[in-house]
Every structure is written in C-alpha cells, then in structure tokens.
Design brief:
Layout (H helix, E strand, L loop, with lengths): L7 H17 L3 H17 L3 H13 L5 H20 L1 H5 L3 H5 L2 E5 L1 H8 L5 E4 L6 H8 L5 E5 L5 H11 L5 E4 L2 H12 L3 E4 L10 E6 L2 E6 L1 H9 L2 E9 L6 E7 L9 H18 L22
Parallel strand pairs: 1-9, 2-5, 2-8, 3-4, 3-5
Antiparallel strand pairs: 6-7, 8-9
Helix pairs in contact: 1-9, 2-4, 3-4, 10-11
Length: 301
Amino acid sequence: MTGTRPDIDTLRYYLLLLVLKCLAFTPLPLLHGLARVGGWLTNTLPSRAKSTTYKNLQTCFADKSDSEIAALAKDSLSHTVATALEMGKAWAQPVSRTIALVKEQDGYQEFLAAGESGKGVILLAPHLSNWEIFGFYACQDLPSNFMYQPPRSRAMDRLLKEVRSRSGVQMAPTSRAGVAQVLAALKRGEMVGVLPDQVPADGSGEFAPFFGEPAYTMTLVSKLAQRTGAHVFCGFAQRLPGGRGFKAVFRRADEAIYSSDIAASLAGLNRSVEDCVQLAPAQYQWEYKRFRRRPDNQEFY
C-alpha cells in the first residue's frame, strides 16, 4: 500500500507549482501592494529578517541617522516580500512574458557586444531586486550558463532546474563539476551568470571589504576571469514604481576585478556589487546574513 502513496517531495513540487501559477496571473501592481503590507508586518513584528536587516544597514550605512535606517529597513523588507511574490512571474509563465516585464534597459548593448566578442562574459547578478527576472532578460540573446547552489529539498531542486532552463540556459551546480562546466563555457565564448554575494563554502573565499566591512567573498569569479580573460559585468533588474515593471541595468565591473592580486580582485568584485546596490539600496536583500563569517570568528548577528 505504501508504495502507491505519492512521494512527499512530488506533492511539494506540485504545491509550489500551483502557488507560482496563481502568482503569475496576479497583476504586478497588486503583488506590490501586497508586498507593502507584508513588509509592514515584517517590520512591525519581531523577526530574524527584521533584526538582520537593521544590523546590516546600520553596519553598511553608518553615516545614516536612526530615522533614515528605519525608513530604509521598512522599504527593504517590502521589496524582499515583493521579490518572493514575483517568483510566479519569473518561473510560471512563458519566458517571453517574463522578459516583457523589463520596460527599460541601461547598458545592455555594451553587455551584448562583450558577450558576442568571443572572449566570454561573466555576469555578476547580486541579490538585488528580482535576480530571476534579470537572469532571463540577460541571457535572451546569448548562450548562457548559470551557477546555482542545489537546495536540500528535491522538490525545490527539481523546480529550479526546470524553470531556469526553460530558455535553454545550462545550469551548473556549485561543485567541482559545475566549475569545470562554466570554465569550458567561458572558453567557448559563452556567458556565465554568478550570484556574487553569497557566503561561499570554507576554503572557497577570502575576506574583502563590502561597504567597509570584512565579508567572506568567493574567489571563483577572480580565478575564472584570470584563466579565461572573460569580460566581467554586474547588473540587476531595478523595480520600477507603480508596478510598471523593471529596468535592466548592466555595468562593467570595477577594473580591479581583473587584478592578479586576489585581495585587489575581491575588493573590485565587492565594489562592483556596491555600485549597483547604491542605485537602489532599498531593493537589496539586506536580511541575508552576509557577514556571518568573521575574520575573528566572533558572532556578528
């Protein structure tokens, strides 16, 4: 009898898909209205997301007053909820409709020219606004590969692979095999997307300043750039007001990222992320524990 019962991960998969499809049909202005309510609740009630957001903002924007930090935290939490509610738009509708959510662009032609140069291009896509929608827009005209960290849930892993590869994107896990995959892709002149602001595994990073605070930073991008000579860009999909959609922003990475000195290169990587964050600071995922690894092994959060 037990052999005929549905697998729990299969049930989770279809439940996630159902929720995403419902969100896909919900108008974007309504989703953003719900996000403001969710952000207000998160900012009002005690939560880990709230405390982490305030800690990160106070650390990274020490020059701001308490009232400015409070206003920025409230907006940030609303944008974080918006990102979650928008995942149906990113994952559960045709790719063409997802890309059509991008109403404006800045720097895309320069990015596309780099991608067509034959040298390969590394795209840093930090946790800023909706990086999933940005990813679909960025890879629409280029053979693309995106690195991802496989989640523990088999249902979520299955979902991520299916939805992210709909447009022909090749998924590369954050493993030795995945690194070999993206290295080969860059040597073929393809695009490789990386989330540069995740805390890497032990031995895969070094400390470098991020908004003036030491942050354990991945060395992978620096090593790939050194080995392949690929162009490096950083970008995000900036959320437009009034539920109008997004603006895709592409910027060349800080020149220091190409340095053979790893400390200088990592500082350049983090400055590249900072430059994008400064364009829309409330849309960054400040509730992520970016500084949980410390040079002195002391508790930060």
